[in-house]
Inverse folding.
């Protein structure tokens, strides 16, 4: 029987936990207007937040929404600084509990894992199964379509602290359906929610799969097995999770797979061409605005990213080969 966790609410509004949450929430936000208004009287504001939590009267502020296109259109939600502090305080308590319940095949938003280790593991699976087939499935609009009632019920199987579940319900109430893209809580809860699909795939096809948030790639023995598993996954996602699979792909291992921004083959892995084109445009834009410091930071980060792949053509494409 799975372990259940009780009496978590007091840990969330604990003063030391709120202070640590404040320090985490301000990282990278030191010039935002919401932070500047909060920091002038941050101890008073933290105490007020603590009292609201103790009384159970905390309610989320209206969130700011804006659209980005990178490469497809997404609606990003921006919470007030006070709410971001609350999100950090909540995740610092429940995050490790939910993370421990995830399977080792999950790589998104987990300490010590991430994109590059996910790509490395995917390449290992290709090398170990040279005659197999690759089934790649992707949720359609994963964050906005998660049923809040089903998510709360699923969280309730692990977290049996009633006041903590009520707080999570208030966090989710900031929008009528789904979870907002950009919130710390959304990353944690969506990753845990995807664990339902992980266990279904592990039961149906074994452990030869990896998942990165809403993308799951599975190795199967034949094309027929892959088509059957795809139908089973679509049915499970529709009936048990209240969502649907959007894009999917089935192909032999020898052709590789495009996953987590890399074109992965058994003998090499390369950055996607579209990613290289976007980065080159970004560097040119930074130079056009004379933002040399931003250009240097972006260059350094991208060089580190490219080196997780194979070949030097990526650096030459960006004019960075001499810095290698």
């Amino acid at each position: 029987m799975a372990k259940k966790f009780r009496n978590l609410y007091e840990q969330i509004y604990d003063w030391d936990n709120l202070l640590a949450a404040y320090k985490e929430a301000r990282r990278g936000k030191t010039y935002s207007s919401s932070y500047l208004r909060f920091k002038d009287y941050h101890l008073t504001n933290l105490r007020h937040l603590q009292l609201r939590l103790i009384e159970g009267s905390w309610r989320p502020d209206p969130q700011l929404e804006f659209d980005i296109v990178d490469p497809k259109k997404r609606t990003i939600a921006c919470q007030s600084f006070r709410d971001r502090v609350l999100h950090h305080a909540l995740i610092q308590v429940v995050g490790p509990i939910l993370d421990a319940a995830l399977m080792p095949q999950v790589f998104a938003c987990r300490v010590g894992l991430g994109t590059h280790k996910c790509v490395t593991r995917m390449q290992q699976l290709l090398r170990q199964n040279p005659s197999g087939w690759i089934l790649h499935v992707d949720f359609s609009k994963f964050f906005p379509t998660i049923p809040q009632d089903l998510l709360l019920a699923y969280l309730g199987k692990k977290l049996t602290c009633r006041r903590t579940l009520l707080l999570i319900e208030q966090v989710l109430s900031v929008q009528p359906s789904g979870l907002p893209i950009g919130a710390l809580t959304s990353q944690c809860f969506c990753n845990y929610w995807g664990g339902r699909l992980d266990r279904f795939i592990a039961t149906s096809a074994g452990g030869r799969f990896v998942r990165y948030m809403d993308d799951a790639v599975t190795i199967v023995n034949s094309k027929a097995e892959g088509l059957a598993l795809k139908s089973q996954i679509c049915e499970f996602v529709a009936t048990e999770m209240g969502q649907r699979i959007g894009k999917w792909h089935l192909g032999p291992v020898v052709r590789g797979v495009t996953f987590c921004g890399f074109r992965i083959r058994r003998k090499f892995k390369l950055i996607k061409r579209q990613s290289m084109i976007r980065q080159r445009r970004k560097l040119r834009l930074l130079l056009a605005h004379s933002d040399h410091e931003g250009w240097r930071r972006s260059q350094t980060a991208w060089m580190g990213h490219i080196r997780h792949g194979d070949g030097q053509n990526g650096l030459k494409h960006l004019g960075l080969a001499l810095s290698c």
In short: The longest helix spans residues 81-100. The chain has 14 helices and nine strands. The mean pLDDT is 87.
